[in-house]
Amino acid sequence: MKTLLIVAVLILILWNLGAGLYYMLIDKGEGKRTVNALTRRIALSIALIIGVVIAAKMGWIEFHGVGRSP
């Protein structure tokens, strides 16, 4: 469940990044849709990082990887 939530947020981040690119090409500087899409992407990224840190501190997830001894 945790993995699915993280993957879903990453997909939303990529969606907003693509939307920002699309609006940048279509609007040609006329509207604020590009700025709004990229602002949402940044907000989602920050929320994801904070959520992962909080989940690690609460013990809901456990980090593993390079440099950790078993």
TrEMBL record:
Transmembrane feature ranges: 6-26, 38-61
Any matching Pfam family: DUF2909
Domain of life: Bacteria
Keywords linked to the UniProt accession: Membrane, Transmembrane, Transmembrane helix
Protein name as annotated: Twin transmembrane helix small protein
Organism listed in the record: Lysobacter yangpyeongensis
